[in-house]
């Protein structure tokens, strides 16, 4: 955070030592969009370059023996080794990406398209420069092709008459054309897939949706707020609703009362003094055997009743637009709420989004 503004960042592990001849320790290196780099100390790109050159920071385990050389660089399935120089280029690329600017890999792909449009020597030279600007340890991943890796780019980067990668085939006009044909086949396949997706995803919104709206569980030890805001989305919001010919003091009252197998338990939960008490009593009562099959339908019906019977609360829900609703909290089970532990299924948020859509549709109907 800088002056109240969030600065995005990304990170990786490096090896750092605190004394000139000291032992190396694994540490996080964090890169931020504004160019700040933090690894124990704070650096910019020039400072990081000096720390790498001086051995203060190492990009690979200094105690690990080097990998043996492979017999053929052309046939190798291994990326170029990670070096301090390549790492520095990678860090600069991450800063570009964090700012939404093209990375070296993206510029390389742009150069490929340019060469496809007009396969001249000038554009092949520009493609070679763009390819060589990619951090060496990342070049085999540029095309996203596990089989061919970056070999088509290595072919086009090699002048006719020279051996590709030093020990590979001698570049010829036919090999250059073969590499160009490879890119043209890929482009044609991508275009076909885009056409297919355009049909399959014809109802996809053209504009990005609103940011996620989070419904937090909140305690009010005093009186409830006169203007509820997003708290109106909560099941514990104390607003009466009529369902099945009976009146309940809140959604929680209704949900847990309807889950009870015994009529006396139903009435005791319905008459609870507060939503939290209704929740507590409902959790202790014996539930209907078929409740797991009914609960989603019942909850959806209760939400419809709540927002149809209280238009001012419906306005709050509709005001969230097309935002995904994240329903959080600590009292609801992970089945209903959102969560960061991969257990939360956020069914409550999904139902609210469904009811919101139904409210909007009902307003658009004539009459």
Strand count, sense and barrel status of the largest sheet are: 5 strands, antiparallel
How many β-strand runs?
9
CATH topology description of the largest domain: Tetracycline Repressor, domain 2
Shape estimate: elongated
Any overview of this molecule?
With 367 residues, the protein is an alpha+beta fold. It folds into three domains: 9-64 and 71-98, no CATH class; 104-194, no CATH class; 213-364, Orthogonal Bundle (Tetracycline Repressor, domain 2). The protein has helices at residues 45-53, 84-98, 104-117, 121-132, 151-156, 173-200, 251-259, 263-270, 275-284, 291-309, 311-318, 347-364, and strands at residues 9-17, 24-32, 37-39, 41-43, 57-58, 213-215, 241-243, 246-248, 325-327. Strands 4-3-2-1-5 form a five-stranded antiparallel sheet, covered by helices on one side. Helix 10 (291-309) crosses helix 11 (311-318) and helix 10 (291-309) crosses helix 12 (347-364). The model has no long low-confidence stretch (mean pLDDT 94).
